[in-house]
Specification:
The structure is a single chain. With 337 residues, the chain is of the alpha+beta class. It has one domain: Beta-lactamase, CATH 3.40.710. Helices cover 36% and strands 16% of the residues. It has eleven helices and eleven strands. The strands form three sheets. It has a six-stranded antiparallel sheet with strand order 2-1-11-10-9-8. Helix 4 packs across helix 5. The radius of gyration is 19 Å and the shape is globular. The mean pLDDT is 97.
Length: 337
């Protein structure tokens, strides 16, 4: 029997504005929902509310590449130059290294954040991300990013280590579009969201039911709307509900959609850091991926050994330190299972 009482006590203690769910491979075991999806409209945040996933979206991007690889439409051991020759270091890097965050490509969001932080020194990262990503909505967005990356050296030699960089999955999103000859949104719909009946899950932050709000430690504890944005990138633009993510969690636990060998690759961490859309969890022997875009946050932890997954969505951070404490308590609770 799972310690569901402990799970609910933590939820009641922190009162995150959003929802959280615990599932096994077959059913929902427990959930919590609280607060508002949209304060102005007095719209409550429920299990069916769609909210931004941020970098949790990378799971779908990684799996898309693995599907194309299994179908022989691309080769993850081929150099990036086969797909994006305009990047000046493309011959030195393979798609596999990009999938594993071992490419050395600098993080375009960090490069842009540094410039925006000078203009808005008192803004939260949630606030800063809004103008940065809104500037990447045009048809020339890929060209903008490659031109930016071409101005900087690699952070390290490819495969020397692992280090998180959104650039990796931004580029993969465009490679999927190129190889599949369709928009990334269509590919995700055809291969993941429609087959799994994830009826509310879409690419594009503008589709979120929930508005996003600035971090409460930057707003004197008052909800200040940041908006939904219009971001479309493969590194962080999926919106989904907890009801849909529970379906996804069960598909993950049952290792569906991908060939078995692809799951083995996806779940194997390289440099003890990153698999393909997966990282170490705060809970030992669990895997995870979190996400953050605008005021949206997502947390996804899974244990194949225990056949359990915990997923949380919130559209307003209570503050960095409070969020860390919540994560630590949830990690300790999962350890007790």
């Amino acid at each position: 029997m799972h310690n569901l009482q402990g799970y609910q006590l933590i939820n009641k203690k922190y009162q995150l504005n959003g929802a959280t769910v615990l599932v096994d491979a077959h059913r929902m075991l427990s959930y919590w929902q609280n607060g508002m999806a949209d304060f102005a409209k007095r719209q409550p945040f429920t299990l069916n509310t769609t909210s931004g996933l941020g970098s949790l979206s990378k799971q779908f991007t990684a799996n898309s590449i693995l599907l194309l690889n299994a179908a022989g439409k691309l080769n993850i051991d081929a150099p990036l130059s086969d797909y994006l020759p305009e990047y000046r270091f493309a011959k030195q890097i393979t798609l596999r290294q990009i999938l594993h965050m071992a490419s050395g490509i600098p993080d375009y969001t960090e490069l842009l954040l540094a410039d925006y932080a000078k203009k808005m020194p008192d803004a939260s990262e949630s606030h800063l991300s809004y103008p940065i990503l809104e500037d990447l909505n045009g048809s020339d967005a890929l060209q903008q990013i490659i031109e930016l990356l071409n101005q900087h050296p690699l952070d390290f030699a490819p495969d020397a280590k692992g280090a998180y960089s959104n650039s990796n999955y931004y580029l993969l999103g465009h490679i999927i579009t190129q190889i599949a000859n369709m928009p990334l949104s269509d590919f995700l719909n055809q291969h993941f969201f429609e087959p799994l009946a994830m009826t509310k899950t879409r690419l594009g932050t503008q589709h979120a039911d929930a508005n996003s709000y600035d971090d409460l430690d930057f707003t004197d504890g008052k909800p200040v709307a940041l908006g939904r944005g219009h971001y479309q990138g493969g590194d962080g633009a999926v919106v989904s509900s907890l009801a849909d993510l529970a379906i996804w969690a069960r598909a993950v636990l049952q290792r569906r959609i991908l060939p078995e060998s692809a799951w083995d690759e996806a779940l194997t961490l390289t440099h003890d850091f990153y698999g393909m859309g997966w990282m170490k969890s705060r809970t030992q022997h669990w895997l995870s991926h979190n996400g953050h875009i605008f005021g949206y946050w997502a947390f996804f932890d899974v244990s194949f050994e225990k056949q359990l997954a915990q997923i949380t969505l919130t559209n307003m951070s209570p503050g960095v330190e409070t969020l860390k404490k919540w994560q630590e308590e949830m990690a300790n609770w999962r350890t007790s299972l």
